[in-house]
Every structure is written in C-alpha cells, then in structure tokens.
Amino acid sequence: MDGKSPSALLIVALSISATIAIWGIIDPQGLGSLAASAVAKQFDSRGWFIMLEASGLLFVALYLAFSRYGDIRLGPDTAEPEFSTPAWIAMLFAAGMGVGLLFYGAAEPLTHFEEIRKYTGDPKAAEYGLFVTYLNWGLHAWAIYGVVGLIIAYFAYRRGGSLLLSAPLTEALGTVWWVRILAWIFDLLSIVAIAVGLAGSLAMGVFQVQTGLAGLIGVSDPAILTIPVFVVMCIAFVIPLRRELGDGMAKLSNAAMMIAIGLLVYLLLLGPTSYLMNSIVSGLGRYTFGALPAGFSTAEFFDQGIVDWFQSWTLNYMIWWLAWSPFVGIFIARISRGRTIREFLIGVIIAPTLFSIVWFGVFGGLGIFDALRQEGALSTINNENLDATTFALLDRFPLSGITHTATIVAAFLFVVTSVVSAGFTLAMIGTGGNENPSPNIRTVWGGILGALGLAMVLVGDIAMVRSIIALSAIAFVFIVPVLVVCLFRSLRREERE
Amino acid sequence: MTGDLIDSILNVSVFAYVAFLVWLSCRPAP
What we know:
The complex is a heterodimer of chains A (497) and B (30).
Chain A: H1 6-26, H2 28-66, H3 85-104, H4 107-116, H5 122-137, H6 139-158, H7 166-173, H8 177-217, H9 226-242, H10 247-270, H11 273-294, H12 304-334, H13 341-373, H14 377-384, H15 389-395, H16 400-430, H17 439-459, H18 462-473, H19 476-496
Helix pairs in contact in A: 1-2, 1-8, 1-17, 2-6, 2-12, 2-13, 2-17, 2-18, 3-10, 3-13, 3-16, 4-5, 4-13, 4-14, 5-6, 5-11, 5-12, 5-13, 6-12, 6-13, 6-19, 7-8, 7-19, 8-9, 8-12, 8-16, 8-17, 8-18, 9-16, 9-17, 10-16, 11-13, 12-18, 16-17
Chain B: H1 5-26
C-alpha cells in the first residue's frame, strides 16, 4: 500500500486517536499529568515563540486585508458569496460562540480579577481582568482562525484544491517526495488535533451540563451525573452523524446561539445596565489601544505566580485556538466562498471579537460587580468550581429555573452540533477530502470522539483537559507558519500569472 | 544565570526553523 494514500492516513489517524482514548480511559490521571508536565515545559521554553506567532498572524491578517491582495476573491473572479453578509456574520458568531463562552463568560474575568488583585488595587485588577479576557478571546484568536481559514478557502476555491491542510503544500511547493510526506503529516496532525480538541469541548460541555442539572434537580454531588449526561450526549450526536448533514444541525446551532444571545440580553437588561455598558465601553477602549502590545507580552519579569497564571491562561488559549484552527478554519472556509480576502478577514476578525467584548463585558462585568459592590460570593464559588460560576450568577436573577434550563440546553446543543460537525470534518480529511464521507466512517469517528471525550471526562480536571488539548496541537505552532509561506508563494505567483 | 543546555539548543533551533521558512518562500516555483 502506498504509505501516503488516504486510507493509510485514515488507519494511522484512527489508531493514534484510539490509543490516546484508551490510555485516557485506563489511566486518566497518568495521561493528564504527563500532558500537564510536557505542556508546562513547552510553555516555559517556547512561550515567546507562541506569542510572537499569534501577534505575527494578526499582522499577516492586517497586511493581507489592506494590501492589494485584499481584492482577490476566494473563488473565481466572477463568484458571488453563497450567503448574505448578515447570515454569514451570524454563522461566524456561531462558530466562535461554542460552549466555551457559556463556560467561561463569568468565570474567566473573575478568575483573572482574583489573581491580579493580589498584586494591585481592585479597580486596576477589574480593568485587567476584563482586558486579559478580551486578549485571550479577541483579535489574536480570530486572526489565527482567520488566517488558517483564509488559507484553506484560497487553496480550495481559488486554486481548485481540496479543503485539507495538505492542499496548500502540494499546490505551492509541488509534489516532490518530502513535500508529500510533510503534507501527509499535516493532515494526520490536523485530524488528531481536531479529535482531541473537540473531545475536550465535549468534556467541558459535560461538566457544565452536569453542574447545571445538579443545581436544578437538587443533587448535592454533580459528579454522579457525569456518566448519564455523557451517555445522553453521545446518543445525541451519533444519531445525526449517521444521517446526512442537512439544515437540521445548522438550525440547532442557531437555536443554541439564540438562547445564548437571549441570556446576554436578559442579564444586560435586568442587571446593573449602566454599570455594564460603562465597563464594556471602557474595556473596548483599553483593548483597542492595548491589544497589539499586550499580544507580545510574556510576563517574564513577574514572580512565578503571575508567570504560571499567564501560561495557564493566555498561552494556553493561543495554543487552544491553534488546536481548533483546522476545524474552525474548514468551517469558515466553507461558508465564505466567493468573498474577497479583505471582506473575509475583516468579517472573521472584527465581528466575533466585538461580540466577545460584549459577551464578557456583560458576564464578566456582573462577576466583577458582585466582587466589588456586593458580598463577593461569586468569587468564592468560582474559586471552588469554575463550572458553577455561570449558574451561580444566574441564581442572582429572577426566573433562574428558566435561565438554568436554557443554559443547559444551549451547552448541550453547542456540544452536540460541534461534535457532529467535527465527525464530518474528520471523516472528510481521513478520506482525502471527500465532502460526503460514508455514514460508517462518520460513525467510527463519532465513536472515537466519544471515547476520547470519555477519557477527558475521566481526567476530571479542566486544567488537565486543557493541557491534553495543548499537547495535541503543539505541532500547529510550527505548521501554521509553513501554510502562511505557501499562501504568500501562491499569491505572488497568481500576481505574475 | 546558566540555563538548561538542551532547552537552550531547542530554543535556538527555532531560528533554524525560521531559516527553513525563508528557504521555503525563496524556492523556485514548482
């Protein structure tokens, strides 16, 4: 068998993913602590390069958007965008929303606030708490997604290749033996990163849903709900994976997004609205003028507590975005055919960033409001269990039974729709770019995602789950710049043609 | 003041990677 054929890719990718899953199920603590120590070592030593790359990708995106290359269309010159601009932006929001925003909306700014207030006064800690959250979820994150998505879209729709990460390599560098090997490795690593990243997302969803459900039905220990919640989620994603990916999944994902936006508006209206609007506007200003320099920060001159905090949040996020960039990149490429590079980059980077600023401004602003103006009980809950923060926040508002249920439903839908979409994407990559992979291959991937998800759930600790995701994606730190070089080579060639 | 030697070599090898990127971008078109 040809070592680089898609079927070999499929077998090797399935084997690696299954091995990680089995390892995690047999010895979750062993896998978690190995990943945590390996990742800590990488972050200690290569943190500077990761931050440099995240900032570099933002500059690449700005350059491409505002240079002459910005006029190039992602498709033939006569191509028209498939979706209207509002529908396209709504889909970008959906791609960026995910379960992470529900999970971290209040928890993350509050965690940063609590950490920073050990070193400085409360007002500064509150400002930085929001600022760091914006830095982690804002322009840099979307520049990573945007550039990877742009590369995938350009080579698939403009140059007529496939939607795989190997397409830019073979198109821009030819098909000599070492390029073919590199291309094969890129596809393999993107499969592993997608599978592990989505399994982590599945685990996060399980933690969130079990905590919410425990509060709703009055169970004191949420951990006893872990397996039932996990099993229900698995059943919920295996059924649609066996069927054709139609409008159904998109509708469910939109429903989850509408619920999330509903929660946002509800909290904004019923909460201290002017306080929240003030915090959003001042946060926006600080972020707009501080994002570029902060993207280069490495916290090197601070004491170990701050360095550890920086590594476990900002650095981890940058790796996290890189881990999900093939998956989100393929999704945003598929919905962006026919747009120009300028439209694509401005839409992909600015719109979701603004949304994140409002989202964290409201959820995080409420958490900080509680810490500064009230008794600070949310911080205590947040210190004990990050999963519980969103629900504890909702408890402070009327109709908390309804908002709890809505959050659980939204988390559930976000996870199920992402896993279904990931199952399709993995099957597509594993079969060499076939956009309609067979139901059996999709089901096998669903099973692997479920097993990996179970491993992550058993690891139990969200920090370790994040380390496993980071470890699976660390290669992308070195893959993405190669893809950028391929893009520039092809853009220059297109200019000469 | 002295750091881990292997780690230092790995860090410096990032420059070799950057050199590889430059070489890739300068290769003649296929």
